[in-house]
């Protein structure tokens, strides 16, 4: 059964550095999402992406964040200048028709 | 306001006992609700979607619009049911975001 994959599984970075989190959604899916979960808190929506553009973004998704689908398979989340409070588990999800979302295993980002 | 509430952070039961994980939502539109499960160190997996009205691994959930609830139930808990359970609400149009509850950790003791 096809699954969403994410790399790396764990990323450690220094404050102020740029990070790129990568996701490969399920191949025939059309809707893509990023969520994050700070330790001990709920899973929070960051951004949704459809038809090569952002459909919706949360207040968290400020100018430091960007998303891209550079080719037919990858979906990336870039954080331009990381802050300590960006430390979290980042989940990618995809959906075929905008219904059920299927999640990747997550990337744990640690900002020192 | 759009909100999902799971009042119990931890629910501990013995094997064979009935389980009910509570979920309440607040949404002015037509709700579409899901239960996701996360086993230790694994990804969030879809357990149930209210539209499909099916039973997965013995779990069922009924949408009660009057009480704005979508409680997850299983008549006889198994040890392998131990996991984090998240209730989620899909908002907006097709492809809309999910709003998650805080999650309930279910611990099934032998």
Kindly describe this structure.
- The complex is a heterodimer of chains A (112) and B (110).
- With 112 residues, chain A is mainly β.
- In chain A, 0% of the residues lie in helices and 50% in strands.
- Chain A has strands at residues 5-7, 10-13, 19-24, 31-37, 44-50, 53-57, 65-68, 75-79, 88-95, 102-103, 107-111.
- In chain A, strands 2, 4, 5, 6, 9, 10 and 11 form a seven-stranded mixed sheet that branches. A four-stranded antiparallel sheet of chain A has the order 1-3-8-7, with no helix packed on it.
- Chain B is mainly beta.
- Chain B is 0% helix and 44% strand.
- Chain B is built from no helices and eleven strands.
- Chain B has strands spanning 3-5, 10-14, 19-21, 24-26, 32-38, 45-49, 60-61, 72-74, 83-90, 98-100, 104-109.
- In chain B, the strands form three sheets. In chain B, strands 2, 5, 6, 9, 10 and 11 form a six-stranded mixed sheet that branches. In chain B, strands 3-8-7 form a three-stranded antiparallel sheet, with no helix packed on it.
- In chain B, a hairpin with a 6-residue loop joins strand 5 and strand 6 (45-49).
- Chain B is globular and about 45 Å long.
- The N and C termini of chain B lie far apart (41 Å).
- Chains A and B meet through strand 4, strand 5, strand 9 and strand 10 of A and strand 5, strand 6, strand 9 and strand 10 of B.
